[in-house]
Amino acid sequence: TAGITQAPTSQILAAGRSMTLRCTQDMRHNAMYWYRQDLGLGLRLIHYSNTAGTTGKGEVPDGYSVSRANTDDFPLTLASAVPSQTSVYFCASSTGTSGEDTQYFGPGTRLTVL
Amino acid sequence: GQNIDQPTEMTATEGAIVQINCTYQTSGFNGLFWYQQHAGEAPTFLSYNVLDGLEEKGRFSSFLSRSKGYSYLLLKELQMKDSASYLCAVRDDNYQLIWGAGTKLIIKP
In 10 A of CB B79, how many CB atoms? Predict the structure, then answer.
């Protein structure tokens, strides 16, 4: 089972360009999440989706957008990249039910904005 | 504001025991998680505590005291492969995870 896949693995992007980070899960999880991880800081939630067709803003949503057209896919788009968006981006998913609802992470995308 | 505190770095010896502490102040509490993250890799789930007390899973144990806003992860019989960062996260009233910055654990032979 693949679990969660992300693409690309890494990318160098010129400031002002747009880019979509892809995330796909095959666990039929209802909930999906996008985080960024920066040195010295904890994971910070960008956007989330509790179920297909719905999305919500996390702690740091500015400059990012998401969509959830189906259960499996949760792409993250940077409309006009800025250097402060240089980070490692992790997608995660969970069943979305009450109780433990553990989040499982994809391998990450390392993005550099110059 | 919401805050999760962990030591930035710890060093321990192979075969020994190490305790990694986590204190939290969050808007509500709906469980505490510990994850392991090797350098350049994704976080992987280790443990979940929602009630006070100790949860044991092989060489790893996690403890929670909700009244003190405190948890620890105990690693026994340390192996070189345990060198990693350990992340503490609390689920708040909005049902979102609030993450600590992580504790980098260095294991020496």
Answer: 11
Nearest to A104 among B45, B87, B98 (CB): B45
pLDDT tens sequence across B16-42: 999 999 999 999 999 999 999 999 999
Q: Is the dihedral of CA B38, B43, B45, B47 positive or negative?
A: positive
Give the Cα separation of B104 and B87 in Å (integer): 9
- The count of C-alpha atoms lying within 13 angstroms of the C-alpha of A72, restricted to the half-sphere facing its C-beta, is 7
CB pair distance less than 8 Å for B102 and A102: no
Structure tokens at B61: 């144990």
Cα end-to-end distance, chain B, whole Å: 40
Q: Mutate which of A103, A109, A110 to test chain B, going by most B C-beta atoms within 10 A? A: A103
